[in-house]
User: Fold Methyltransferase type 11 domain-containing protein from Candidatus Wolfebacteria bacterium RIFCSPLOWO2_01_FULL_38_11.
Amino acid sequence: MKRIKKILIPFVVFLADIFIGKRNLKASGIKIKVNLGCGLRCLPDWINIDASLTALFGSRRFGFINKLLYRLAGSSAYYSFEEFDAIIKKNELHFYDLRKGIPLLAGSADVLYTSHFLEHLNKNDAKKFIKECYRALKPRGILRIVVPDLEAAFKKYKEGKTEEMLDTFFYTSDTYDFHMHKYNYNFQTLKKLLEKTGFVQVKKQNYQKGECPDIDFLDIYPNNSLYVETRK
Ligand SMILES: C[S@@+](CC[C@H](N)C(=O)[O-])C[C@H]1O[C@@H](n2cnc3c(N)ncnc32)[C@H](O)[C@@H]1O
Assistant:
């Protein structure tokens, strides 16, 4: 089963992206807030984007499709089926491979939030993604990035917790590509990347603290994470 998933899921995602990957999503609302690589951490008044099977096939009308997805996508480790089904039905999830860019018009977003996603991109794709964040934001718009904190990884290593450190920060998944960590950051390297792209006021923040809206719901990693906010 694992082997089938490893081959089948990336293939389905690849095809779907060619045929139905949406561009320039339109949003209503006073503030345009976008959660990039959202997983299942979605909110109804945000644009929620992910390249997961759930974002691709999740159905607001047909519960049986969600039942199948629940098993395939491995969400049972974190959510009951009722919770999973409710997330799909309450929110609009958009399927998009963010390595291709951000499907928004230039200067259209007030807020971009991305949690535990950047490390799933290789160094070059991450650079492209940060440039895309800059393009998609309105002037003075906020970008909040949450990633595993390399500093915390080395702290664990120094404490002799080598395996725990490797599993948490550098794991290469036995499922498929999108689950793998491909690069890691500390505050200095992330700040450098952001400033090189043109971002200003790069600040280290804390768990559920900062100027980005809804972080009391969106931030779910109290430990081992680096929280950074910046403006265009
Ligand atoms: C560790 S999860 C984080 C989910 C959520 N943001 C959170 O904080 O819990 C990483 C997410 O990134 C998504 N992802 C990985 N590569 C992607 C890509 N190229 N385009 C869009 N989403 C991607 C995965 O599908 C997954 O939902």
Q: What stands out?
A: Residues 52 and 135 are 24 Å apart (CA to CA).
